[in-house]
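2 proteins. here.
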Amino acid sequence: MLDPARGYDLIGDIHGCARSLERLLEQMGYHRQGGVWRHPQRMALFLGDIIDRGPRVREALHLVHDMVEAGQALCIMGNHEYNALGWYLEAPPGSGRQFVREHTPRHERLLQQTFQQFEQHPGDWHDFLGWFQQLPLFIDAGHFRLVHACWDSELIEPLRQRFADGRVDRDFVTASAVPGSFANRVFERLLRGTDMRLPLGLTLTSEEGYPRAHFRTKFWEEDPQTYGDVVFQPEALPDEAARLPLPDGEKNRLLQYGADEPMLFVGHYWRRGEPAPIRANLACLDYSAVMYGKLVAYRLDNETRIDPDKFVWVVVERPEAPQ
């Protein structure tokens, strides 16, 4: 899938910020030729979540899709592309659901911007749904790896036995509606990451106004002592929870991505501040672009440890208004 003679520009969650993506590509030396953004020596690798929330979803999809079709990019699936597929797929009998992605007001709200922008382009949307189905869930290039939210070898290795290139079929997406099934665990872990229930019956309110009893966790912390040591999301834990000692049972359930494993790049986590490695073999490239943060890339060559000087970004301007 990857050309060893090229360098790679790994790009985080776009969420419909097409103009910012164009500015980022231009900053990195890409030029639009024949309707496709190209670089003479490099290739773009997108970490998923091209759709939803932002004002130019359709433009962003055409840009990324056309680069992929022209051999100028690869793109993996994000949880928002999975959500779009699941919205239309009926769940199997016995799953307790009608659709893989239930038609709740919250789920509809997350997809609303995308639906609105394709109202006059139903054929386009049908084609993109077919393309989402072809997106791999991960890329393993040997000295580096890409996954939208979390690398879990205990799931990825058996997944490879069925789908060597990480591209799953429609039946696998449908099977993910069954709680606890292998397909369900794959999508939840790889595209949404790891989480933990808040202690003391506490809840959080997300940035979108929804209450949550769980919080997103790190999947690399080697010896956490408190709940605060493992949180990995924009919202801080309540002080009373963050200071609590982490029980051994919770600590033992944490996933470990070892410091000696290949470089891993993820999106998904809505980071803030100046882009930087989390550690020498791990970086998140999602810096809240659609919330007027940064659209971030990492310019990867032959290094085996992440170089803090190779992050590049554009600040998303207010507003990136629709046409």
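next one coming up
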Amino acid sequence: MIKDELWQLTATELAFGIRTKQISSREAVISCLNRIEEVNPLVNALVEVSREEALAAADAADKAVSNGEQLGPIHGVPVSIKINSDQANHTTTNGVVAFKDNMAVTDSPQVANLRKSGAVLVGRSNSPAFNFRWFTNNDLHGRTLNPWNVSRTPGGSTGGGAAAVATGMVPIAHGNDSGGSIRYPAYACGITGLRPTVGRVPQWSGPVDVDQVLSNQSMLVQGPLARTVADLRLALSGMCNFDPRDPLYMPVPLVGEPLQKPIRVGLLRDVGVAKPTPAVNQALDTAAMNLRNAGYVVEEVEIPLFAEAYRLWFLLCMEEFRQIMPLVEQVGDEGMKLAAKHYYAVQQDWWGPSPSLKDYMDGYARRGTLIANLQQFLQDYPILLLPVSAEQAFEQDADIVSEESMRRITAAQWSMVSIPLLGFPALAVPTSIAEGLPVGVQLLGRRFREDILLEAAEIIEAHSDVITPIDPC
């Protein structure tokens, strides 16, 4: 391939080419930097580009190859980092004007592992203020646009990373997910995104000297976004090494025992919260057919506990978010303030205006029961096939139009919040284009069995007609 076109290659192809000296990391990085210069002004995905730093890292990567050193799985490959994770000598802004000078001294565990695995960090990707919306817009860095349709959200909160991957600026983007922030942007931008099991990828979120809230410890994960399932697997292998700063890290092998075949897949369309649109239903049907043709047994199932988990997320996570609401009110932008107001209006529908400590404690107790119930279900159906969202990418800022609009959005996103509450791995994979927008499906599996999900996702991906990278519309 012409050197100027290396940005079109997958991370797997780039890593192999760099390792075998067919191309250099410098060539790959320059190609991606040129692509960033060309398309980033059109979508505002990367809010900081570290050209000289990236080129120096690329040169070091090439020297390591020449010296015959041991190489990590993503050695020399360009990667973006989300603005809510510490990267040494860069600001962790969280999209908040008041945090614009919040310089990080060291890498967070998730960033350190990417660097140790050979990634060349080329830029910082945009997110909403405080990373708490499915829309990527803030007063400090501006709005990120969906490259398929600028009137639609690129997703959030890793909307910048998803748009960067979809347009070929980087082959891999770092993201995090406690309410769909990896899976939904991947879905909205027509790429793949993996939410690993809690404890798979070591992490730390927020200032190093501040205790993490319980939902961050039990629901938040770090993971990759990429154009291919193979790249997700590659990135995961580079992110999951031990770091002593994470109290919940588990050194579980990336590949587990083979499952008895045929593998049964439960097709879960609707849990009584929001009916999927025809496009979403068609995506589920297509994915189910592809899995059946590959030898899987796919059967429609009903699992009411997801509806309960969806409501429970709004109790546990929103009560913990209430602790930082004074800070949001003080320094947050108007979009975040209004979104929070609407989130709490939704919460009040089920939990009243002032949930009690007993509600909160009972909620965490109930969470354990729901996890156990789902684990039992997954003994018969090791994989669930379900919607990412009941709709395609929402209209920009639809969450702050009104409380009713927020109710519609949160209902469509029932799987985005119920799965983090339950703590299981899940990934989004595109299937097709409908009315000019990508649509796809989600796979959920047993804890620490990302390998089984990746295998099934590759079958779905092989039949997808969503082709990225794309030029922004």
